[in-house]
Amino acid sequence: MRFGKLENPEGRNRWLVRGTRYGLALAIGFVAMGGGRVHGTPTHPVDDTMPSRMVIQVNDDRLTVTVARAPQIYLYGVIDADAPQRFEALVRSGKIPPGSDIYLNASQGSPGAGMALGRLFRTGTMTTHLGTPRHKGHAGYRGKKSAVCTGACAYAYFGGLYRFAPTGSDRIGLVYPAAQAGAGEANAYLKTMGIDLARLGPAPASPGDAPLWLTADRMISSGLANNGRLPLKTKIWLLPPMPSLELVQDDRYGSHRLVLQCKPGSVTLAAYDMVGATRANQIVANARRSYVEVDGKEVLTRQSDGASAANGAVVITRPYPPTELVHLLSARTIGLWVAGRTSAFRYGYTFVLYPAGKDILDFYHACWRAAPWPLDTAPAKR
Fold first, then answer.
1. Which of 28-32, 204-208, 299-303, 358-362 is predicted with the least confidence, judged by mean pLDDT?
2. pLDDT tens per residue across span 5-35
3. Is the separation of the CB atoms in 124 and 252 below 8 Å?
4. What is the distance between the alpha carbons of residues 231 and 363, in angstroms, rounded to a whole number?
5. CB within 8 A of 102, min separation 6: which ones?
6. CA angle, corner 17, sides to 160 and 103, nearest 5?
7. Range of the domain at 91
8. 93/197 same-domain check
9. CATH code at 107?
10. What average pLDDT does the segment 276-295 reach?
11. How far is residue 144's CA from residue 132's CA, in Å, rounded to a whole number?
12. Is 312 part of a structural domain of the chain?
C-alpha cells in the first residue's frame, strides 16, 4: 500500500490513504474489528447518554494502524478527576503510544483534569480531533453523528501538537478562563500550549459559563487549530557572497526543508523531505522524474536523476535561474515533487509562501546585490 501525497486546488496536501477515522469507512464493512478495547465502563449506552466517567477506547487493530498510520483513541463522557491518571497508565503500558490520534467527545468535567490530559497529549506529540467512538450494533459499526467538546474538553483538545478543526456537525465550545475558578492556571496552561485567545478578538466584558462556539475557519485563522501543520519557520542570511533563505515546515508526517542559496552567477535550490530511510529509498526507486511547481505550474523538470535518497530524506536539488526568482515575490506556493511512469504515483510537498513574504523579498534583493543578473531583469527599486 502506498502513502504518497496529492495536492488539492487549495495547495494543501493529502495522503492517497488518509490517516483519519473517515478513511476507515470503506473498510469497516469488510473487516470485523470488535469496536476497539474500552478502558472504563460507560454507565449508559454511548449513543444515548454521555457516560458519567470518561471512557477510553483504544482502536489499535491492524486495519486502523495501516490506514490511519497511528492508533485511534476515543475519549468520551465526563472528564472526571481521575481521567488523566487512567490515560497516563495506558501511555506507560504502551497501549497508547506517542503520535496517537485522540478523538474527543465530552461536554462536562473538571477543567484541571482537561488540562492534565492536554499536557499528556503534548508530551506524547499526539493529534487531537473531535469524534465519536465506533462500536458494534445491529446494523454494523455506528456512533453518534456529531461530537461536542466544551469546557474541560476544549482544554484537553488544545494540548494536541496537531489539532484538527471540527468537521460536519461536530462542535467545540470555549468557556473563557475568566469565567472559571483557577483562571490563572488556565491562562498559564494556554500560554504553554501556544494558544493565544486574543487572536479571537476581545474577550466578553462579563464572560459567563455559556461557551463561545467556534467555527473551523475561525479556529484555523486564529491558530487554535492547525490541521496537522505547524507554522512555517524561516531562516535568512543576507550577507555576501552567498545569501541564503531556508524554509522549514513540520507536520504530523515529518519535516520538510527548502533552501535557496545565491552564489556569484547562480542560485541553487535544495529540498529535503524527511520520511525515513526505508520510505525515501522506496520513493526514489519509483520516481521517473522530479520537478518544481510554482503556483501549480510545473517548472525545472528533470528526468531520472532529479531526486535522491540521503540521510532519511528524499532530496531534490536544482540550479534555480536567478531570473526566475522574481516570480517567488508574488507566488502563493512552491512545491517539490517526484512522479512515476504514470499519474498514479506522485509524491512531494507544497510550501505556502505568504508567511515568508518579507524574508523572500529581502533574500531577493540581497541576492541581486551579491550577484547581479542581466539588467533587463533587475528588481524594481524598493
1. 28-32
2. 333 333 334 333 333 444 444 333 333 333 5
3. no
4. 20
5. 73, 75, 121, 126, 127, 128, 129, 160
6. 30
7. 5-222
8. yes
9. 3.90.226
10. 92
11. 6
12. yes
